[in-house]
Design brief:
The protein folds into four domains: 313 residues, TIM Barrel (Alpha-Beta Barrel), CATH 3.20.20; 86 residues, Lipocalin (Beta Barrel), CATH 2.40.128; 123 residues, Urease, subunit C, domain 1, CATH 2.30.40; 249 residues, TIM Barrel. It is elongated and about 115 Å long. Helix 16 crosses helix 17. The chain has 983 residues and is an alpha/beta fold.
């Protein structure tokens, strides 16, 4: 049926836009074949090619000719556009025009069970991968939305179904309400679209996180190649479509600078250069954005000022959110100045009407007008590979707007928007400008008439002397209608004569008597004054920090040669505690330790009365990430926390203030086999790459207990395997057996399908990746050690391990380390047997023991957590301190680089105000690789600076409201506190 309709629409289109050979008896015939010439206009053929007093000749929806002297054929309709400007109509590269996004279906039952498998046969194994989707199958031309676009100057949109991780094909549509789909659809397959967001058409659980979406995309590309090479035995319509779409423009919806970099990372891995939809915040990390070499599509939905009239509410707004309002309008200017190729979109705007207003604001904030026009015409056309749109060259579509002046001037009126040679009236071009002051004479009385406004929106005020009278005024179709209430109603109808200086017509009084009336324009004779030059409005743009929130660095701190003098040094080595000792840090390393050290070039820190230690290392953390759990499968070894490291997390700075220099960001405990971890140094202000350890050991998170068997997930989560502790054991055995077979096939040299999950598990079997396992109960701890021994490897670390004291002898024999809490217990059933002596008992058994946090608050005071082992177990100060320095370094296989004060190790040290195990001790300076990332004195300065900057921004927002600007009520925001079980 659809093919029949398509044939019919094609037939109709051919009939409309070719020679007519049949008669019509209903109205005027189509004027499509008529030649139309627009003369005396300023014509922007392209943003760079401008013709003054030019002629634009069009026929059959295309440009026939354009130039200063164009031969106009006989019978051509000529339109004089003296004083007006013609621009190519705009192109929106990222639209959902005419395609309704599917609504998420509500759960049929309150406790509906999750869906783990795909619902479609013959397609990819994940429902959220839908490259076979074709926009044309759900497209319906939207006249109302088209009108909104036309009013804003747009002539073409690139539209698609905005649903799913891989969304299939988009289509290029001319916004021509007067045509049929067969003619206005310029391209059925204009681009392939991708995102990190799941489809609402399926409830399939996987992926539940951004890192899961990234892993899924990687596996999809690997599978597509395997399929294309003819290795797959099954037919997969999704992979066939994905391979068929390879030559199309690939557009990826990111929506923020951080996700933009994540998307580009995937593209780079598979040799794909995405065109990326940004978030308007690219100015925050412009150097990194530039390095992607990606072309961008940028929304201009600027943040409105907050209504800060309530000081209690205003106090709660974060500095970063206040800055966004101030800095965001500079984004396009910053992109342009850095040579980044970008197009513009109406995406995310609540009203299309706001597009030009926001663009005018961006121009006010430094965007070059020529660049703005390029971003709406030639750049999107080039990205889409279309030479016939976005310009008015010969042979291009006759898509253009006629304006009263410069398109980006707020006073300019868009009169008409021609699409494919069809006229769409936005504002009547023939309405005369009759604004001014007039004196009306009617029935022996005289009145003043003051007309203001423009076009159809001209309004009039009537006065008798200084008294304002009740009156109504309209000017439409060249006729004036005026009613005056002056001791009775007088109705005036008339028109303009003498070039808008005189009005004449007929007046009717209340009794219906007719008489003549007239009005003449009054001109005030004033001495000519030299108009002062309009002073350009000063814009206060606040500087960007890294990260662009409170406590960020306006310039990244530099590596220095640092000499700490005369301190008490806790080495975490066999040297123990060294009194009155100096430490020289040079080129990021500990260069010398001793007394009376000298270095002319060094920054000297007086350590008298202070303590110096190695930086604290948190073996089990969940800060500085955008996700913790990928809970969609019982094994997610393919996902990586490195994909979702978040350098903007304020907890990085807070941890530095607690003396922490390195952390392992672990996946959560949603499944027996979790994701790969990220080991980072807390280099506040650096980008993701600058945080992650270079050549760091490889780790993965496993988990045991209640979380993985979903006993605490609610009544609906009873279908995913495993549901028992026995089942958890079987999961490990099954997956390791599969990994063993996979690795053998890979090493055999025979063809094999690359599987990221199996690759990761094979690394464990080959002793190239270490396991850190969430654990509580002794029986399961024993079980996992036995499984590991069966497959000839060791568990590296049991984390939490609150029943470790029961099996410490077996742990020692296996060679596993422990990372535990100091005194957490009784927060769920499986920790009822926890005791605070656990760490000391395991240590005394010869196990390497660390104290970890698993919590953003505890991680800021791990020095105090370590101190608790002195009370609970009688640990010495030095052995207690090792539990947060060298011991976690050993567990992470980083002890050759950090974790203690030793010549040759990384310059990761902390200067404390007192004994570091004391609750009164403060980290005064936290140094990483010879760079001071936290300084308690500078922290005081930062707090003062934050207060001053907030005050300045609040004042600016109050001013905006007082001037009548748009404001919004602030919404409460809170940063999620990630734990092992956070979903």
């Amino acid at each position: 049926m659809r093919k029949l309709l398509l044939f019919f629409s094609l037939f109709v289109a051919f009939s409309m836009h070719s020679q007519e050979y049949f008669p019509t008896n209903t109205g005027v015939k189509s004027t499509f074949n008529k030649t139309v010439a627009f003369k005396n206009a300023t014509i922007y053929v392209t943003p760079q090619k401008i013709i003054t007093k030019g002629i634009l000749l069009i026929k059959e929806g295309k440009v026939l000719s354009v130039g200063k002297s164009v031969s106009i054929p006989k019978g051509t309709e000529i339109i004089d556009l003296e004083g007006k400007i013609i621009y190519p109509s705009f192109i929106d590269m990222y639209a959902s025009f005419g395609i309704e996004k599917p609504k998420k279906s509500p759960s049929s039952r309150r406790n509906e069970k999750p869906q783990y498998d795909a619902t479609r046969k013959g397609f990819y194994w994940n429902d959220h991968i839908r490259p076979e989707t074709k926009a044309e199958n759900s497209f319906k031309f939207d006249d109302k939305k088209a009108t909104d676009y036309l009013k804003a100057g747009f002539g073409v949109v690139n539209t698609h179904l905005q649903d799913g991780i891989v969304r299939g094909n988009g289509m290029l549509v001319a916004l021509n309400p007067n045509s049929s789909d067969a003619y206005r659809i310029l391209e059925n397959s204009s681009a392939q679209y991708l995102s990190f967001s799941k489809s609402t058409l399926s409830k399939q659980a996987y992926p539940t996180s951004k890192m899961g979406a990234m892993a899924l995309l990687r596996q999809m590309y690997l599978d597509a190649k395997w399929y294309a090479d003819g290795n797959a035995k099954n037919k997969d319509q999704s992979l066939e479509a994905l391979n068929a779409n390879k030559s199309l423009l690939q557009i990826f919806e990111a929506g923020s600078w951080l996700d933009l970099l994540r998307a580009d990372k995937i593209g780079d891995e598979f040799n794909i250069q995405y065109t990326i939809l940004g978030g308007g915040d690219e100015y925050e990390r412009i150097d990194e954005i530039k390095n992607t070499n990606a072309s961008l599509i940028i929304p201009i939905n600027f943040q409105d000022a907050y209504d800060v009239s309530n000081p209690l509410i205003a106090k709660q707004i974060a500095l970063g959110d206040l800055r966004k309002w101030n800095q965001q309008p500079t984004n396009l200017s910053v992109l342009a100045k850095n040579g980044i190729n970008f197009a513009l979109t109406t995406h995310k705007l609540k009203k299309t009407d706001d597009f030009l207003k926001n663009l005018q604001k961006a121009i006010k904030y430094g965007l070059n007008e020529e660049k703005a026009l390029e971003a709406l015409t030639t750049i999107p056309a080039k990205l889409l590979g279309k030479t016939t749109i976005g310009n008015l060259n010969k042979g291009s579509y006759a898509n253009f707007i006629i304006t009263s002046g410069a398109i980006f001037d707020s006073k300019t009126t868009i009169y008409e928007n021609w699409v494919q040679g069809d006229k769409n009236v936005v504002n009547d071009m023939d309405i005369k400008d009759i604004t001014g002051d007039y004196t009306i004479s009617v029935n022996g009385k005289y009145y003043s008439l003051i007309i203001t406004g423009k076009g159809a929106k001209q309004t009039g005020v009537v006065k008798k002397g200084d008294e304002k009278l009740k009156a109504t005024f309209s000017f439409k179709d060249g006729r004036i209608h005026l009613t005056i209430n002056d001791e009775g109603y007088t109705r005036l109808i008339g028109q303009i004569i003498n070039a808008s200086n005189v009005m004449q017509g007929t007046a009717y009084d209340e009794a219906g008597n007719e008489s003549g009336w007239s009005a003449s324009k009054t001109f005030k004779k004033e001495a000519k004054k030299k108009e002062p030059k309009k002073k350009k409005e000063d814009l206060t743009i606040l500087p960007i920090s890294y990260p662009n929130i409170g406590f960020g660095n306006f310039s990244l701190p530099k590596q220095e040669t640092i000499l700490i003098k005369n301190a008490t040094v806790w080495t975490s080595e066999n040297d123990g505690i060294l009194e009155n000792t100096d430490i020289l840090i040079k080129e990021g390393k500990i260069a010398e330790i001793g007394k009376n050290l000298k270095s002319r070039a060094a920054k000297t820190i007086d350590g008298t009365g202070k303590y110096v230690t190695a930086g604290i290392i948190d073996e089990h953390s969940h800060i500085a990430t955008s996700a913790v759990n990928e809970a969609g499968h019982n094994s997610t070894a393919e996902v990586s926390i490195e994909d979702v490291v978040n350098p903007n997390d304020i907890n990085i700075y807070r941890n530095l203030a607690g003396g922490v220099t390195s952390i392992q960001i672990l996946h959560g405990s949603a499944n027996p086999i979790g994701g790969r971890s990220a080991i980072i140094k807390l280099k506040w202000g650096e980008n993701v790459e600058g945080l992650i350890y270079k050549n760091s050991p490889k780790f993965i998170k496993f988990a045991l207990g209640e979380n993985v068997k979903q006993s605490n997930w609610g009544e609906s989560n009873t279908i995913r395997f495993p549901q028992t502790r026995m089942g958890t054991e079987q999961v490990f055995i099954d997956y390791f057996q599969r990994a063993k077979e996979y690795d053998a096939l890979k090493k055999s040299g025979k063809p094999y399908r690359k599987d990221i999950e199996m690759e990761t598990l094979a690394e464990i079997l080959n002793k190239e990746r270490f396991i850190s396992c969430h654990s509580y109960v002794q029986s399961e701890i024993n079980m996992l050690m036995k499984v590991a021994e069966k497959f000839n490897f060791n568990i590296n670390t049991f984390t939490h391990i609150l029943e470790g004291y029961k099996v410490a002898d077996k742990m020692k024999e296996h060679g596993v380390g422990a990372s535990t809490f100091s005194d957490w217990w009784a927060y769920k059933y499986e920790v009822l047997d926890a005791i605070p002596y656990n760490a000391a008992i395991m240590h005394n058994q010869g196990i390497t023991v660390a104290i970890n946090s698993d919590d953003r608050e505890m991680s800021r005071r791990l020095n105090q957590e370590a101190a608790k082992t002195i009370k609970y177990g009688g640990m010495s100060e030095l052995e207690a301190w090792k539990m947060v320095t060298i011991n976690p370094a050993k567990l992470l296989h980083l002890d050759n680089r950090t974790g203690s004060i030793k010549i040759g190790k990384d310059g990761d040290v902390v200067v404390w105000s007192a004994n570091p195990l004391s609750i009164y001790a403060k980290a005064e300076k936290t140094i990483i690789d010879g760079v001071i990332y936290f300084d308690i004195e500078k922290d005081v300065e930062k707090r003062k600076s934050i207060k001053e900057e907030k005050s300045k921004l609040l004042k600016m927002m109050l001013s905006e409201k007082m001037k009548g600007g748009k404001t919004v009520i602030p919404k409460k925001k809170s940063n999620q506190n990630f734990h092992c079980d956070t979903l």
